[in-house]
Each structure stands twice: as C-alpha cells, then as structure tokens.
Amino acid sequence: MTNAVSFSSVSALEILDSRGNPTLQVRLETKHGPVVAGVPSGASTGTREAVELRDGDPDRYGGKGVTRAVANVDGELAELLLGRDWASLAELDQAMIELDGTETKARLGANALVGVSMAAARAFAGPEPLWRSLQPEGVEARLPVPHLNVLNGGVHAPNDLDFQEFMIAPVGAPSLPEAVRAGAAVYARLRALLRERGEVTGLGDEGGFAPNIAAPEDVLRLIVQAITESGYPAGADGVAIALDPAASELYREGGYAVAGETLTSEDMIDRYAQMVEDFPVWSLEDGLAEGDWDGWQRLTARLGERIQLVGDDIFVTNPGIIAQAIERGIGNASLIKLNQIGTVTETLEAQRVSREAGYGQMVSHRSGETSDSFIADLTVGTGTGQLKTGAPARGERVAKYNRLLEIAAAHPGLPYGLTPGTYRR
Ligand code: PGA
Ligand code: ZN
Q: Which of 18, 139, 275, 335 could form a Cys-Cys staple with 396, CB 3.0–4.6 A?
C-alpha cells in the first residue's frame, strides 16, 4: 500500500448478480479516476458469516433488495470517507468497522463494507497491479492452480446430487495457461460423456453440469473418465479432484443425508477415506458440518496427513475462529472468502493466521457473483496457490480465470502451482 488516498465521491448502485439477485456495485472517485467493485453473495452460507444486509421488502426482489445497504454507502460511509486523507487500507477498514459498531457488520451491512473495502484496495493500489499491492511482506506471489467446479449439486442445482461441488485441479500442469486449457478440455469431455449417457447437461449456479446422479462415487468415476479421455493422467501428474460436499447443508437432526441414506460423522469419515483410496481426491472442503467440531477433529486425525481438509462454513474467513480451530487440530487449510468477514484487511488477517500455522489456503468466489475479478489478484498477491471460481464457462466465472491469464502474460516470472508442501497425497 503506497501513498495516502482521498475520495471525491463515494456511492453504490443496486445491480444484479449471476443468480439474478440484487447486489451492490460500489464506486469511489479518486484524483486518478474511479475505482469500482462488485459484491459477491453465497447460498450455502455459514451461520457465523458477517451479515449481508437485505431490505426484507417482499414487494421488491422477494425481500432480497439491497437499497438499505446502498443508502448506507451513499450516506454514513460516504460521510466517513470523504474530506480526509487515508494513510492505508487497514486504517480505512478499521474506521468502517468502528462506525458499524456490531460484531457481525449487521448495522451497515457486510455487503456495503466489503464493496467499499474492495474498491478502496484498488484506490490504494493506484497504477500498481492490484495483486502486488495486496502482497504481504515476505510472501512470494504465485499463480494458483485453478479449482474448476465442473459438476454441481446441493443447493447450487435442482438435481438429486447432495454433494455441492466436484472440482478438477490441474496440479500437474506446467503453467497457468496450460492449466486453464486442461480445465476447459475436461469440462468439454465431461459434457460429451453426460450426453452419451442421456443425462441433462444443464448448469448449476457455478457453471458446472447438474445431472441427476445421486451417488458421489458415480460422479467421481465419470470425472476420472473425462480426465483420462482428455489425455491427462488423473492425479498428481495431471488433473486431481477436489470436493466440497458443503456438509452443513446435508446435516439434519441425527445425521448427514447423502443419496437417500442418513449417515453419522463416523460413516461420513469412512466414506471419504474410501473415496480417497479409490479416486485422486486431493482436497476435501466442508466434509462435515460447521457445528460438528468433534467430527472435524476425528476427520483431521484420520485423513489430515493424506489430503487437504479445507474449512469453509466452519471457519468463515474469521481470524479468531481459525485460531481456535488450529488450536483444536481441525482441518489443515482455510477457504478464503472476502464477504464472509466483510473487509479486505480482515481477510488478509485470516490469511496471515492460516499461513503462520502452516495451513493451506484456497481463495474462493461465491455462488452468486459479479464480473469483478478481485479474487484473482488476491490469490496471486497472497501466494495461496489455489483459487476456486467455478466452471471454465459463464462470464462471472471466467472473468477470474481470464484475469489470471492476463497476470500470467504480463508477469512471466511468476511461479505457478500449489504452494510447496501443500500437496499431501
Ligand atoms: P456459496 O457456496 O457461495 O453458496 O456459499 C460456495 C461454497 O460453499 O464454497
Ligand atoms: Zn464451501
């Protein structure tokens, strides 16, 4: 973060996200021109996430309007930001947190705060590439392995599949452009395989196919076939698989609902252990529910040396919660989502806590997205080595992959791939 920044105008607009729901676009005027940010929005949210402020007026967008959050940017946040010099993004974010005054950013809205924070980060970057201005001292910038969500279920698709996300990760690709090419090739081959089987090839919220296949193992078999038929080894030398069952959504009183069965935490752990034996699964996110800390401890003890175990709903990009989880030996990697915590500064703090504990990090989009590509720069600057941002299709998803391609072309010296030591298998 370089020189002090001041603003001559602070405003927000109610726009649509990729699901057709309202979200905010924030615009700040600086003396070098405008900076803009689009705010993402999740569907399978953790209960401890910062609070998205919605109007609740049933006559507009089914209650999902964001005019109150827009008014908070145009009103209180503008009043705070205008007419002074800001020395750093951290100072600005802290002032917004104090003005909001709540633990969860519920008063002004985490959607209002995160939009201002992302746009302000661009103002502080100035003419420098955004990723470079987000790079913490002593951290090596890196182009990440894209984790492309090629098959959708759970609350992201109206099909029989309970697991939410099946991602392909070209961990063995020699470069970012080759990884993107592998992702697109496997996605195309998967579409052809689904057609051959008479499955529907409609898409879920993150651009992956949404066929009516109930058993996760059947999906894994199909994806391995798509990988190998595209000419890549399935696994470390080529394209590996990452899962996000989003198990908080599967959890009901008494167990986890998977493909018509009700499973205990122990059953789930056994099932994952078998999947890891049978398929090149290298990373498992939210394998158990956010409230099942004991189950998470057992899952980590059982599989933590073999695969990456990523906390999403359980960690909610919250530095304090991540620190507690580290203490209890839960997971070995954090999912990083800006709007779960509500400012860029706190996101960087969650990343610092994870990094210093030796936890891996995967930066993530939300299922509701805009064409903003901020997270591509965030993942490069913070050197996480992993970004998940949906299928290699649909504008709001490819905006991020395309930004990575731009960064790769402009900075040929940047390393590509997982952070050393992250791949466990
Ligand atoms: P969400 O899903 O954006 O709907 O929360 C993404 C995830 O669970 O990783
Ligand atoms: Zn998740």
A: 18
Q: Which of 364, 387, 388, 396 to mutate to test the pocket of ligand 1 (most atoms within 8 A of CB)?
A: 364
Closest CA to 392 of 147, 223, 45, 205: 147
> What atom of ligand 1 comes closest to residue 335's alpha carbon?
9
**How far out from the chain centre does Cα 42 lie?**
10
In ligand 1, the atom with minimum distance to the C-alpha of 365 is 3
Please indicate whether residue 42, judged by its CB atom, sits closer than 6 Å to ligand 1: yes
Q: Which of 367, 396, 400 to mutate to test the pocket of ligand 1 (most atoms within 8 A of CB)?
A: 367
Q: Give me the half-sphere count of Cα atoms (radius 13 Å) on the Cβ side of residue 259.
A: 12
Query: Could you list the pLDDT tens digit for every one of the 425 residues in the chain?
Result: 458 999 999 999 999 999 999 999 999 999 999 999 999 999 999 999 999 999 999 999 999 999 999 999 999 999 999 999 999 999 999 999 999 999 999 999 999 999 999 999 999 999 999 999 999 999 999 999 999 999 999 999 999 999 999 999 999 999 999 999 999 999 999 999 999 999 999 999 999 999 999 999 999 999 999 999 999 999 999 999 999 999 999 999 889 999 999 999 999 999 999 999 999 999 999 999 999 999 999 999 999 999 999 999 999 999 999 999 999 999 999 999 999 999 999 999 999 999 999 999 999 999 999 999 999 999 999 999 999 999 999 999 999 999 999 999 999 999 999 999 999 98
Catalytic residue among 64, 105, 337, 400: 337
Q: In angstroms, what is the span from residue 1 Cα to ligand 1's centroid?
A: 30
Token readout for 145 is: 């392995």
Order across the sheet with 33-38: list the strands: 9-16, 22-30, 33-38
Tokens of residue 227, six digits:
């990988």
pTM for this one? 0.98
Question: Nearest C-alpha to atom 1 of ligand 1 is from which residue?
Answer: 42
- Is 397:360 a contact under the CB 8 Å cutoff? no
Look at the chain and count its residues.
Answer: 425
334 Cβ neighbours under 8 A, 6+ residues apart: 310, 311, 315, 317, 322, 350, 351, 354, 359, 360, 361, 362
Number of H-type helices and E-type strands within the chain: 14, 14
Q: Is 367 in the pocket of ligand 1 (CB under 6 A)?
A: yes
CA 237 from chain centre, in angstroms, equals: 25
d(CA 389, CA 397): 6
d(CA 282, CA 143): 19
